[in-house]
Amino acid sequence: MTSPIVPQNEIHLTLDDIKRHAVLDDDVHSCPTRVISLENTLNGLIMPLEEVKKISKFAHERGIKIHCDRARLWEAVASGAGSLGDFCASFNTISLCFSKGLGAPIGSILLGNADTIKHDRWVRKSIGGGLRQSGVMAAPARIAVDVIFGQGPTGEGGLLTESHKVAKEIAAVWASIGGRLTYPVHTNMC
Q1: Which residue pairs from 140-143 have beta carbons closer than 8 angstroms and sit at least 24 positions apart in sequence?
Q2: Domain residues of the chain, as ranges?
Q3: Which of 59, 84, 112, 174 could form a cystine bridge with 179, CB 3.0-4.6 A?
Q4: Which tens digit of pLDDT belongs to each residue from 100-118?
Q5: What pTM, to 2 d.p., does this model score?
Q6: Does domain 15-176 have CATH number 2.120.10.30?
Q7: Is the Cβ–Cβ distance between 156 and 163 less than 8 Å?
Q8: What pLDDT is attached to residue 173?
């Protein structure tokens, strides 16, 4: 069962949000929390690295796995929220998309430890998943990472950083003519 949580602060989930909704007992009438799946970014809003670390510590102390299911972690990192390594260290698994935000024609990657990836390959193959000649997809993904994200752990030299500046400029112009923003501009979504 999935239990979606709306952040109380209307920006990002906090440890308090997780604690209020996590099912930590083994009552046969409930569904114990086994995985916490976080998104970063969500609506262009960044979940701060420090909050991710708090939630991760809470989860791991209770044997709960933690997953980052987000195509736009690239954007959070390129905005200065922390490095890819900083974020990855908090999760058991991370799914990163090469098409959303980076512009590759197709593709995602799953990051995790060797045992998890071995199991996930088996599951993928058991349900018919796979791709021949994957280099055709890997090449544009590599270009997207190097050119759009950048070549360093925080997106150094990539085009995403510039797109964040443009979004903030657009937000400022919009506000100066009386426009209202649904969410504050943390990244390149306005």
Answers
A1: 140/98, 140/104, 140/105, 140/107, 141/98, 141/102, 141/104, 141/107, 141/109, 143/104
A2: 15-176
A3: 174
A4: 889 999 888 999 999 999 9
A5: 0.90
A6: no
A7: no
A8: 97
